[in-house]
Structures are given as C-alpha cells and as structure tokens.
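Appendix C reproduces, verbatim, an entry submitted by the partner laboratory led by Prof. M.T., so that reviewers can inspect both the input and the predicted structure.
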Amino acid sequence: MSPDTPYFIGIDIGTGSARASLVARNGEIKASSTKDIITWRDKHDYRIFEQSTNNIWEQICTAVKEILKQSSVPATAVKGLGFDATCSLAVSDFGGSPITVTKGSGIGMHGDRNVILWADHRAEKEAELINSTGSIVLNYVGGTMSLEMEVPKILWLKKRMDPALFARCQFFDLPDFFTYKATGDNTRSFCSVTCKCSYVPDKGWQPDFFERIGLGELVDGDNWKHMGAAKGQVQTAGSPVGRGLSQKAAEELGLVEGTAVGSGLIDGYAGWMGTVAARYIENGQLSNILPCLDESRHRLAIVAGTSTCHIVQSRDGVFVKGVWGPYRDTVFPGWWMNEGGQSSTGQLIDFIITTHTAYPELKERAKQEGKCTHDVLLDVLEKLRNENNVDTYTELTKNVHFYPDFHGNRSPIADSQMRGSIVGLELDASIADLARKYYLTLEAIALQTRHIIDVLNAAGHDITSLYLSGGQVKNVVIMQLFADTCGIPVILPRSYSEAVVLGAAMLGRIAAEGAKDGEDMWRIMVEMTPTGTLVAPGASSTVKKLLDAKYSIFLEMIDNQRRWRRQTEEASY
C-alpha cells in the first residue's frame, strides 16, 4: 500500500446506528465499523423519538478509529470525509452544547437529549397551522408540509420553552450539525435547508412566513443566526466546509487537522449519490451503456430501510402535488430534485410479523431450522402456493387488500392522518395467515411505490428505472415486486448496506479534489460506484392484470378512507 494512495471516509448516521467506512478512490471499501446509537421513546406517547448528538459523535469517533486500525491506513492518507444523516432536528446553544428537547421542566436546558428524530410525530398541530398559511414555502413541499420536517418541530419547541432559553438555541438538520461539529464552521448545506428547513430555492428564507406562524424571532434582522444559511453561507453537496477538520475534532476522530470535509447530505440523498451512476449486469453480461449525467434524470433512487425515500433529479424544477420539492442545488449546482417517501416500510414489515399471534411459533421454527424468519415465511408461502395450485403468491392473496399507511402518508397524498387497513380478513391466527399478511405487506409497499412513480411521471418526470439501496434489498421477493408492479427494471447495488455510506465518502472526495460542477461530480460518482445487478419485470400477463386490478383497488382504498373520515368528522359536530 503506497503512502501516497488517497482514501476517503464516509460517515452515515442512520436511525439506529452510525457507520464509518474507509473508501479508496475507485470506490472499494477497505474497512467499515458500525456502532449502535441510543433512541429514547416515551411510554406514554408513541409519537416521541429522541436522540443525542453527544452519543452519536462518540460512536462516530470510535468507528473512525476502528477503521483506521483495521486497515492499517495512516491518518495522513485520509484526504477527505463526508457526512450523511437522517433528516432529524438537532438543537444546541451558540457554543455547540446540546439543548434538551424533551417535554417537561428540563426543556431548553443543557442536556444530552437534543435531537428530535425524523420519525417523531409530536408536531401535528404545528404542521396544520403551517399548512393553513398558503405560503410560497408550501409550493416547494408538494403543497403540504410534513410534520416530520424541522420548522413544525421548532415551533413545537417554542411553544413549550422559556423565551430566554429559546433565544439561545440554534437549529440544525442533523447532517449540518455534524459538519459544524467537525469543522467549527456554521455553513449549511442546500440539501438540509431547502429539503427540511423551508429555505426556498432561488429566494432564500421567507421572513413573512416565519413571522406569520409565530417564529418571527428567527428572522433576527435578516441575520438568521438561529437557522444559518444567511448571506451566502450555504453550499452544494461536497463543497469544502470551512478549513476542514478542526484541531479538536481531528484529535477526537484520530485524523489530521485540516482534512477536507464535504458539505453534507440527508441519508436518502447520499443513497441517490451512491447508486444512480452504476452500470449493471443483465443476464450475466455487463451493460454496454455508459451512464451520462443526463441519464440521471431517468433513474429513481429508492433508499429502503426503516422508511423509504424516492429521489429523482431533473434539469428544471418539477412541481408535484404531494411530493417534496422541487429543491434546487441539493446535490449538483443548478439541478433540481424531488423527494417522495413512505414513512414506515421496513418498520411496517417487522410490525406485521412481530405482532401476529403466530410470531412465537415462527421464531421457534426459524431457530430449529437455522433460518431467518423471512425465509421460513417464504417456505410457508411456497407450501400454500402448491396446495392451492396457483403459480404465484399474488394469486394466493388476490382477494385480500392491504393499505400500508400505519404511520401516516408522506407521499403522494401528504396526509399524516392516513391509517392502515386490511380488507378480506378471516378467523385465522395460524402461521399460514402470518405468511399471507407478510406477502401482502410487501405487495402493498410495491403498490404504493407505483403510486409515487405514477404521480412523479404525470407531473413531468420520465422515470425508466429504479436504483435500490438499504436493508430491504436483501428481500428478493419485494425487489421482484417492485419490478413487476411498476413495470420497469430494478438495479440492485453490489452491497445493500454500503451504498449510502459510499455516497458520504464521495462527498469527501469531491471536497478534497475541489470538484465544482455537475459533470465533475458525476465523473467521481461513476468512478466510485460498483456495478449493480438488473432485475427485470417478470410477471406473466395474468399476474400483471391482477397487480393492475389490485393497484386500482389500492387507490380506491385511499379515496374511501378519506371519504369515511370526512363523514365521521361531519357527524361529530
């Protein structure tokens, strides 16, 4: 290993863990370390999810030191690093010390629990107020602001915090907090402030909006010191932040002071960066298509883990009702992006399995057979398929219909009050019933993905392929369902777990090499993205017709639920 060989570190802060990976210039991952992070819940309020930047930083530092030790790569060989993180709200004072966000007497005081996680749904009333304003801000979030975004959460905090304590707070989307922590420089990213903090593309912060919703003090004479990103202090992805690693951060990470730090990305966008430039293998042969920057606008990145993000780029802004964006300069200078999403997918699959009466039987069988629970469920489905003399699992469950929004709808109807439903239940608590419900959950997630894609394309996008990453990539059944239900090919990454952290490492390389435009950034992505594998649509004409029928019923279930809600609300007055 030459001492002159450059390496880059990607740091991915997910919902349940923080990962650091050491990556070579060609995208090969030399070492990785993953550390669990703490999430606090409230046993009296299911909506609450909180974390700690102190806890996350400690785990990051441990992980970075471990990958250097594993690889025997000297710190001097690390030329850049990048951060991605969940779109969660971090709160600190102006010295960077954490401020407590937990409701009660300690709110606004110094304390570890200073992160309101993306999945936290405490700010429903605040989101309703914001959505009643008709502000231009709403035009850039599909017409409806989600309660998962940062401004509703900031407003929730203001209502419960002593004004003097609120005045000393600064607010960050989580990726920006960690570039601040690493460099001491408060410059924000376009990705965080436009996607999650109501910074309007080409126009910036909107004082009238913040004043109207009761957050006028954040305007601060147009200095925006609580929010950042004022007067040009905002950057595209991978732009070098400040002077690189501060002395303190370098010592804590085991790296060299001044190492380049790239402006960060929300984790879904890092997944986009780490997948969409891939070539792919089809039928054992490497595709002869060399991806160009313009091709990126046809490739939808789907980052599918606990929740799912759907991200697509375009040369011009495309306004899509119920889908976040368009956001300008989010990754590439001058390009626009839209973001769809499902608030609960991997989480929903686990919920359906673990809350079923037959779950203990499933666990015991998996233990006895030395298999994972998902494989056991597929064995059960295969037995049922043979017993019922049908060709596919879709035919096995054709008369049961599942709507998956147990945690509200993020896209494309942007309705946090939507709830899940199953039509066609039987008096059956067996493991066979669990297997059917498991498959129905996968099918419903795929049908909702088709809904999001149809809405994006109807508004002006032209999506012709799906680029997957995240834990759900391990599930071959849902990957084929995506291809069959949406009618377009799916490209799987070489490693389901590394695409997002690879995107973060690309930010480090972009910063170290000073890449400034989309073509240079795309070249780095192509050079660093491993070859993927194509999964083609494979449904028979019969199954395709059945999936189309189930999709039509899926849309009817949305209309019915909203109509029923209106009827009961009217009856309540």
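The two ends are 74 Å apart (CA to CA). Additional entries are available on request from the coordinating office.
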